[in-house]
Amino acid sequence: FQYLKRFDQGYNLDTFHYKDHSVEGSPAECLQHFLLHCGITDPSWAELRNFAWFLNVQLRDCEDSVFCNPDFVKDTLQGF
Fold this sequence. Notes:
mainly alpha
């Protein structure tokens, strides 16, 4: 949710890192962002859960990857 919120606000996500147990926004705001970005017109709860889980795994892997670390790659992968 924190990534989606910042994406919608136009922030540079290359330098953002999720902090464990940090809470932002309300459950309704989180649900709204998931509904906007999941790609399904009328998703079931299972589809929303799978979208959130998949996004979480991908973003965690991205944060852990040295190839996505802006300090390592500098500006060679701008916008990647």
